Known about the structure:
mainly alpha; 0% strand
Amino acid sequence: xxxxxxxxxxxxxxxxxxxxxxxxxxxxxxxxxxxxxxxxxxxxxxxxxxxxxxxxxxxxxxxxxxxxxxxxxxxxxxxxxxxxxxxxxxxxxxxxxxxxxxxxxxxxxxxxxxxxxxxxxxxxxxxxxxxxxxxxxxxxxxxxxxxxxxxxxxxxxxxxxxxxxxxxxxxxxxxxxxxxxxxxxxxxxxxxxxxxxxxxxxxxxxxxxxxxxxxxxxxxxxxx
Length: 224
């Protein structure tokens, strides 16, 4: 009767203190799950490559597949206009500096992996979300579908993002770019009344919006 008359908050705090005061058993590290995961991942990769090699034998094999997929993204040989900014940059850069800037842009992604993995090791789902967002932003030939992938995953973190700053500003920015981008593309490519700077301006605004969104997202998780 006495315990039922106590406030519920007091009982919950007392229970939490009892749980925290319990001795913690040391957790032993085991290589077994890591070896199992590496084995099955390697087996699945080999099986998938064999199937791709058989199906693409008459089209050039695996080398042609890698060249048309990963090579297309890494080499940035196609400078067709896209929603990204690298096509304009490499169209203007000097040829003898092309390889330097190409390596610098791609290595920039690698420098972010380890610090984020160390800082967010306790939030694996959010870490995967951040990696998807970074790869979508720094991709050489991005598309709207790349942004739709990580924006569609925001539902996982509704509670954490409730206090996110400038969310209305970011929403209006995305909405404005989605309207202006096809208009500028039409004026430049089809009507010929504009130039590349018209379309590149919308690509720059889109890139700035993505960087701002990523900054406020990280700030919301670490400082709020």
